[in-house]
Amino acid sequence: MPENKFKQQIANCTAEAFKVILPELFREKADLYLFDSVWLYEKIEVPKKPDMGNFALPLFEIAKQIGKNPVEVNKILTRAENKFVAEHEEYAHLSFSAAGGFNNARIKTEALAEETLPQILELDEDYGSSEEGKGEKIVIDFSSPNIAKPFGVGHLRTTALGHSLYRIFDKLGYKSVGINHLGDWGTQFGKMIVAFRKWGRHDDLKNDAVLKLYDLYVKYHKEEEKDPVLADEARAAFKKLEMGEHDEAHLWNLFKEVSLDAFKETYKMLGIHFDYYTGESFYNDKMPAVVERLKKAGLTRISQDALIVDLDRFGLPPCIISKADGATLYATRDITGVLYRWETFRFRKALYVVGTAQRDHFKQVFKVIELLEEAENVPPEKRCSQNLEHIEFGWIKFNDKTMSTRKGNIILLDDVIEKAITLAREKIIEKNPDLDTIEQTARQIGIGAVLFADMSARRMKDINFDWDVVLNFEGETGPYLQYTHARLASLLRIYGKDVPVDINYSLLNRSEEHRVIDLLYKFPEVITDAARDYEPYLIGSYLLDLAGAFNKVYQRKDETGRIDKIISDDAELTSARMALVKAVKIVIQEGLYLMGIEAPDEM
Ligand code: ARG
């Protein structure tokens, strides 16, 4: 984490104030309680509410240590801090106030503006980047649809969240590694092979192949109920596939190819890139060694002819490693995957962006890894079990009868994207029929609406997806942010000159402008918070605040009730305001980028 100048100054003032007040509070043992600036720096937070100042130090822990009431300590501390500030010119831009147990610090806007705006204008999209993660890797397993099945909205959240986390960690200097753990192995492919041989044609694989394969799969299940012999055939086919027999492998490869082609189209549309497409089958030749390791470590036992790891004492169902016929399972491949990724990447964290429904699965997998490392006496610094995180999320509900479901209960992601683009196109044509780039802009806005909606709440919350809401240009939506961005871009076009960096920042002296500057200053901290909590939502909600604050500047009226225009005859004032405009534009664009969303200059 790069050192934050103002935060450091606040820590210094607070440390100095403690030096003064501790002897008063504790005549005899004052030197026992030394809260130095390094220690304080780590304790200082960014408050959630803007009226709490730019930084806040919670005093509860400190007060407890010195056995005093935090509110009392705060009163005395604040007085000492402000006295110290008054005596030291170089801290004149700081002021402290007490709010219950929180010691709040405010930075004068002019100082904030002078520090923040030139930084943003110079760094441009790199504002907020850091080297926090330098030399460390974050492995992100996300999206991971199943082949020969359509890519449904069920996989939208993992795709959107995972991709956003990928960009967020990259921004913080980590090397993000995106892995698509395709569901491309398992007994269902025996069924697929049987179904394809019985009812499929190679022509089916030319257009809409994935849908046609899925049709076959659905048909198979209907027929199997009438004719149980099919199940034996399917088992036999899977066995052959596992043994690598040519014909079965050939068909499976075809299924995989056509599925990947279709998935990659969707990813391309969304601007998503994966570093590796290593699906479940990738671990086939790596599993036997892992099964041996588990056995050798004494973790396994036989139960009903299956090889399992008993996890009863951890309140978890047993983890089945292989079945009576030797077939491995989803969990076996994930256990192998963890060990492979650890060997390959030595990650700082491995994230699994997968819905809540698989909570037990990941608990089991992570527990088995932990037990294995324990049993093998792996030295603590070489263990990975502490670095594994299941990034869970709630459901997304589509209350849309018109879309339901070409296939069983699956709403296709492609259909959702297409509908979003269509609706966005209609809106653009209504508002701005002369726009040259209607198609491209409709795509950016449609996709922006879908992605933003997906990250419009903390990830554990369920999302209700409602078309009227997500595409509302005035609501708390992606298109609203894109619209604000386009408005900023248009101001810059109208201004038509380069925005100078050395402007008179004291001219940005309205309360509306203060609010914008406070927020701009906060952006780097918001990114760190989003990474820490694995919550792209925090960036989205910050951007809504920022856009809202800017729109207040934009719509501000002067004493006579007329709009106080950003571009006026006063050149000095105009350039100061245009610096603000440009800075807000940069931050909105970059914030949207971190959420995987594009920001058109015109719409
Ligand atoms: N293919 C799985 C599904 O669609 C998701 C895989 C998630 N990743 C993993 N390593 N298990 O439910």
3D structure, described in words:
This protein has helices at residues 5-25, 37-43, 60-65, 70-87, 109-123, 156-171, 188-199, 209-226, 229-242, 246-270, 287-296, 330-345, 359-375, 413-431, 438-454, 467-470, 478-495, 511-533, 536-554, 571-594, and strands at residues 55-58, 94-99, 102-107, 137-141, 175-179, 300-303, 306-309, 319-322, 349-353, 388-391, 396-398, 463-465. With 603 residues, it is of the alpha/beta class. Among the domains are: 5-107, Gyrase A, domain 2 (2-Layer Sandwich), CATH 3.30.1360; 188-270, no CATH class; 423-594, Isoleucyl-tRNA Synthetase, Domain 1. The strands form 4 sheets. The chain has a 4-stranded parallel sheet with strand order 5-4-9-10, with helices on both faces. The protein has a 3-stranded antiparallel sheet with strand order 1-3-2. It has a 3-stranded antiparallel sheet with strand order 6-7-8. The chain is flat. The relative contact order is 0.10. Bound molecules: arginine.
Bound molecules: arginine
- Which CATH-level-2 architecture of one domain? Orthogonal Bundle
- Counted by DSSP, the helix tally is 20
Q: What does the main sheet amount to?
A: 4 strands, parallel
Radius of gyration, CA atoms, in whole angstroms: 29 Å
How many runs of DSSP E, i.e. beta strands? 12
